[in-house]
Write a structure and sequence with these properties.
Elements lengths: L30 E10 L2 E11 L4 E5 L6 H8 L7 E6 L2 E2 H10 L1 E4 L11 H12 L3 H10 L15 H13 L5 E5 L7 H16 L3 E5 L3 H7 L2 E6 L2 E6 L1 H8 L3 E7 L6 H7 L6 E3 L2 E6 L4 H8 L6 E7 L3 H10 L1
Parallel strand pairs: 3-8, 3-9, 6-7, 7-8
Antiparallel strand pairs: 1-2, 1-4, 4-5, 9-10, 11-13, 11-14, 12-13
Helix pairs in contact: 3-4, 4-5, 8-11
């Protein structure tokens, strides 16, 4: 262990559970990270990270460049050894079960490099032989990622998006328990991104647990069941979108389209205890606490205002991310 690390947490002891003790059987999560640290000389790239990814979950890592996401991912994959802490996949750790773990994990790096002179079929067959996979499975994965018609083309002629699809094929060919994707939409066009999201959802429905990092907040908001936000090597927030919204107490925006704007609109709204609002054309926008929105809606629907339409806009991940990073 480096001189700069804190005391090694590698001897973290799990609670003893089981039938003989009378406790319920312990649920083994797909991924457990406890107090993980990584030093490069005096520089600490990862600081006491605690992270749990449950079986069947889609979990996303967010953070600026240099936040420590890629280092953490490499530690999870066993490509970089942690300076301290514990990392387990399916209840196994790399010190004892390195090969067994790697059979259970699929990985798509941000940049995937292939031999230009090999065809897609030759490339995926190479990975299949390494992992003891059948020819039929090669056909299946090329079909899944949309490369079956191009399987006999040389990879050197592929676009960046097609190479990304081939990278996905090698990552899922052995049907991993945990699929790790580092910036998976890189190089994909809008249609390719939509198709990738559909693939991720389908793999997840089939039982694959997915951990991915992305700079695209829309992708994360659409796909992830839970989100971890990193900054300067630390995990500064974790939870579902709703949990992160509640943590920040961000207001719900209520937008009301009116048929007519009464001259005494401000007086009417103040009478309903709505003191702050914005008016744009015939649309009134009101920010209110999440637990007060029913009261506000009831107040404006009592007949004094001619309401044409009403919309609720909960704070999205973009607002959440900006507010958390500013804390």
């Amino acid at each position: 262990m480096d001189d700069h690390t804190s005391p090694d947490c590698g001897n973290f002891v799990r609670p003893q559970t089981g039938l003989l003790g009378g406790d319920p059987m312990e649920v083994i999560n797909t991924l457990e990270v406890k107090y993980a640290q990584k030093f490069y000389g005096p520089f600490q790239a990862v600081k006491d990270i605690n992270l749990t990814v449950e079986k069947g979950e889609i979990y996303a890592l967010l953070g600026h460049n240099g936040a420590g996401k890629s280092t953490l991912i490499k530690m999870i994959l066993g490509l970089v050894k942690a300076s301290a802490g514990m990392i387990e996949i399916e209840g196994l750790n790399y010190d004892a079960k390195n090969k067994e773990i790697k059979k259970r994990v699929g990985y798509l790096p941000e940049r995937m490099n292939f031999y230009d002179n090999l065809t897609a079929w030759e490339t995926i067959s190479f990975y299949a032989k390494l992992k003891g996979i059948t020819r039929k499975r090669c056909e299946e994965v090329l079909e899944q990622v949309g490369l079956r018609e191009a399987e006999h083309r040389r990879v050197g002629t592929f676009s960046k998006g097609m190479q990304q699809r081939l990278g996905l094929a090698q990552a899922i060919i052995h049907k991993p328990d945990l699929l790790v994707l580092d910036e998976p939409t890189t190089g994909l066009d809008p249609i390719g991104i939509l198709e990738l999201k559909a693939m991720i959802r389908n793999w997840n429905k089939e039982g694959t647990t997915i951990l991915f990092s992305s700079h695209n907040l829309n992708d994360v908001e659409e796909l992830a069941q839970r989100i971890g936000i990193m900054n300067r090597g630390e995990m500064i927030a974790q939870g579902s979108l709703a949990e992160l919204q509640d943590r920040l107490g961000l207001p719900t925006k209520i937008k009301i389209d009116l048929a007519v704007i009464p001259v005494d609109l401000e007086e009417i709204l103040v009478g309903k205890r709505i003191k702050t609002f914005q008016l744009e054309g015939k649309t009134v926008s009101i920010d209110c606490p999440k637990d007060k929105k029913t009261q506000v809606i009831t107040a404006v629907m009592d007949g004094m205002l001619k309401v044409l339409d009403l919309r609720l806009e909960e704070p999205g991940l973009n607002s959440i991310y900006q507010n958390i990073m500013a804390e």
